[in-house]
Design brief:
With 49 residues, the protein is an all-alpha fold. It is 96% helix and 0% strand.
């Protein structure tokens, strides 16, 4: 029983680290897309002038 508790503790710890890392990746990708669209829109306005 002790081994199962230790295993679950380690598993949940690594799972939490994985979830946090995945959340950072998703946030970074979404932020990059938003910034790229903003930059493209500004350049489109400049080219029309």
């Amino acid at each position: 029983m002790t081994n199962l508790i230790l295993f679950l503790n380690a598993f949940l710890s690594y799972f939490l680290v994985y979830i946090i890392s995945a959340a950072f990746v998703v946030i970074a990708v979404l932020l990059g897309i938003r910034l790229r669209k903003s930059k493209d829109a500004k350049e489109a306005l400049k080219s029309k002038e």
